[in-house]
Amino acid sequence: MRHFSAFVFASILLAGTSAHAAEQQIPAAIQAKIADAVNAQLKAYGGKTPVPGAVVGIWDPKLGVMLRGFGYADLAAKRPMAVADKFRIGSNTKTFVNTVILQLADEKKLSLDDTLDKFKLPVKVPNAGHITLRQLGEMRSGIVDLYASPEFQAYPFKIGDTFDVLPWVQKALDHPALFPPGAQFNYSNTNYILLGMVIEAVTGKSAASEVETRILKPYRLSNTSYPVGDPGMPEPYTHGYTLNAKGGWDDETVSLPPTATGAAGVMISHAADMRRWVKLYVTGAVNSAAAQKDRLSCRDTPRRGVQFGFGVGCSAGWFGYTGGITGYNTSAYYLRERDVTVIAFVNSQRELKGKPDVSGAIVRAIARILYPQNLPQ
């Protein structure tokens, strides 16, 4: 089963490269407690064995730094997870895409209140005159998630095959709307595929190119990429795994062509880059104050204690995103009032009924230990 995650908040520790020696380290006793909590979550979300591996980072200006690898990056080779390993970041891609949209709004090339009929898109959007960019970004468009269909979940992707996502987008658009635009919240990846199309319509360039020239290069996120054709992973990387029916782990590192996910979840990064990125976009360093007000316009969702802004999750003072894609689950959150960043990257997209994804569960476990007064849901 393929998973394309919405926002939601191991038996042995194998440490990768630790944080830079010049940085103050979180006290060893606290690190040990956190390691126990991380391992407990990897075990709880696993099968016959724990979820293969994770990279966990905590940056707290008062307490110190903890950056470690847990478990394995490659089960076949028994290679321990290293903190420099790259992951597919799934829906954390959306934080880059919505930043480009906000920058275009700053440049007066579009408005978040523009309706989709103002843009020349390669798909036909029913009710395009009533669906705004703001509603797409805030997941309040009423458009169904193209990835939710049983047909897409069962699609026989093969390595090297070409894949045209447009017919799938059109099928989602042709489905009756879940509700009138703006009336409710419903997480739909189709919204961000459409925002990627809007970027291309406005700029005449690909969403990948705009992300690279506007964000990756100027902010020196050199270990972050937006693949467009090559389904492989840049070295060094962790393999991605899916739990099979027998309780073991299938390697699905290369199971989806980049065109299948695009602006909704195609990007690749690692912990150090995402540590910098989540703080940049949460503090408004990459767009104007007016655009940042739009980004952080957090509104209630059906999940108690969880709000959602313009492509950002908000809970108990934390701002950030959780992304899930086949084989990978990544959470990157920033606690503004304490200037704290927490990263949890896991090499399997695992969920348990009524609980967060595995990376979100790790973030919550860390917050319970260090920041119980800011416990995300």
How does this structure look, described?
This protein is of the alpha+beta class and 377 residues long. The protein has one domain (28-374): Beta-lactamase (3-Layer(aba) Sandwich). The protein is 28% helix and 16% strand. The protein contains ten helices and 13 strands. The strands form three sheets. A nine-stranded antiparallel sheet has the order 3-2-1-13-12-11-10-9-8, with helices on both faces. Strands 4-7 form a two-stranded antiparallel ribbon. Strands 5-6 form a two-stranded antiparallel sheet. The radius of gyration is 19 Å and the shape is globular. Residues 1-21 have low confidence and may be disordered.
Topology:
Blueprint: H1 28-44, E1 53-60, E2 64-74, E3 79-80, E4 87-88, H2 93-106, H3 133-137, H4 150-153, H5 166-174, H6 190-203, H7 207-216, E5 241-243, E6 249-251, E7 268-269, H8 271-282, H9 289-295, E8 299-300, E9 307-308, E10 313-315, E11 318-325, E12 328-335, E13 340-346, H10 358-370
Antiparallel strand pairs: 1-2, 1-13, 2-3, 4-7, 5-6, 8-9, 9-10, 10-11, 11-12, 12-13
Helix pairs in contact: 1-10, 2-6, 2-9
